[in-house]
Amino acid sequence: MDKSNKVKWGILGCGKIAHKFASDLSLSESGVLYACASRNGDQAREFGIKHKASTHFNNYLSLAECKEVDVIYIATPHSFHHEHALLCLANKKHVLCEKPMGLNEIQVLSMIAAATKNKVFLMEAVWTSFLPAIIQVKQMINEGEIGDIRHIKADFGFRTIFDAQSRLFNPNLAGGSLLDIGIYPLFISLILSGYPSYVQSIAHLAATGVDDECTILLQFSSGATASLYSTLTCDTDTICEIYGTKGKITIPTRFHEQDHFYLQLNGKDRVEIKSGKKGLGYYHEIEHTNACIQNNITESNIMTHSLSLQLVRLMDEIRKQCGLVYPSERLGH
Ligand SMILES: NC(=O)c1ccc[n+]([C@@H]2O[C@H](COP(=O)([O-])OP(=O)(O)OC[C@H]3O[C@@H](n4cnc5c(N)ncnc54)[C@H](OP(=O)(O)O)[C@@H]3O)[C@@H](O)[C@H]2O)c1
Known about the structure:
By secondary structure, the chain is of the alpha/beta class. Helix content is 34%, strand content 24%.
């Protein structure tokens, strides 16, 4: 691709997160919203007008087939990521897919295989990985600033009224706290401490059978541990604390979208470190995706395929321990 040209984006599914993403895309220096698609023509038109798209479609296939579009952001419920990503990849579109990339490891493996076969970019939209604060925390820890990590504590929770049909509680949309928000505490422990050697989890299941609470204990080969919690039943602090032998790092609420953090070395005063962020924070993953596409890179070196596979393997194991199987998985998908 000619680097002087802006990357042309398509957005598939015009729901809540799609609006936020489009708002940050408008800040991009290297990409532009070209098209959007909704199952509902009026919704597609309104979204397109609001976010200044060049065109809009009343179905997803037309977007996947649109010749002008380079990359498609998939912003549909969890249970459709696999199907919608495969549709776009088969049409040789680069794909940025909302988290979780797929429902299970089998789905993620087939998405990666489709991207490889079609020689296109595929990345899970874990935007947290690209936030300057998270990158800085990771770097400080790698450089031994707080010594050896011994424990990570992270939570993500909010109280929401039970609604069996909603995306959060409907098993057919792969609802539940783990896949929706528990993925963030899990992700932060994965990038800071690596894949655990031991996983123990307990969930409370809502009336629809999806987890409205999930508690996870991890242990790593170093002997260090993590305690993680996600919930749809109460408002929690949504912070991340990393305890090391020389001090502690705290990423305050809400840690997954934060622009600053605190460093407290043993016996010293707590210091605030401001890392900043642009827009709502999605800007950073957008610029990274644009740079990959402009340089013909098909896999991010930050949010790698391997990281997505590790994440989904962990969630598969946690769901197995908690007895959480989605309806489509009973049919073998
Ligand atoms: N990165 C983040 O910060 C963040 C935050 C929230 C959510 N998310 C992720 O983004 C994805 C979407 O979440 P959201 O909160 O934007 O959900 P949402 O508001 O419900 O939007 C989802 C969209 O998916 C489309 N869709 C296609 N088939 C559907 C079906 N059978 N039922 C419902 N919707 C269907 C709809 O778009 P059309 O009607 O236009 O076709 C709908 O508006 C999820 O994967 C979620 O985990 C990420």
